[in-house]
């Protein structure tokens, strides 16, 4: 059973945090390494869209779970959700990306777990 309509639905940052915070889904950050290092959502898993487009497999802790993709502004995550859906993954993305996440007052940490910023 799918929790989302594959690759078509978009969640608000608050909805994404609820679904990933309770373990229903995993938050997959598809931004590039420098963006990730500067700031990401706590508990997110990192896999850049460029690697997904090149055919990279999902990390083990993401496989067989619903995915909520996130990027900086929502464009790359929308691409990622569609790509993942074409691979049979139950995937949606976050409208507005990490910029909207931070604007909503949700936590952002850097690579050391300290207060991060959206790059």
UniProtKB/TrEMBL annotation:
Q: Mind telling me which PROSITE patterns this protein's record contains?
A: RHODANESE_3
Keyword Transferase: yes or no? yes
**Entry-linked PANTHER family:** FAD-DEPENDENT OXIDOREDUCTASE, PYRIDINE NUCLEOTIDE-DISULPHIDE OXIDOREDUCTASE
Q: Where is the Rhodanese domain?
A: 21-110
Which superkingdom is the protein from?
Answer: Bacteria
The reply on keyword Cell inner membrane is no
- Under the GO molecular function aspect, what terms does this record hold? transferase activity
Give the organism the record lists.
Streptomyces toyocaensis
Q: Which UniProt keywords apply?
A: Transferase
Protein name per UniProt? Sulfurtransferase
Matching Gene3D superfamilies: Rhodanese-like domain
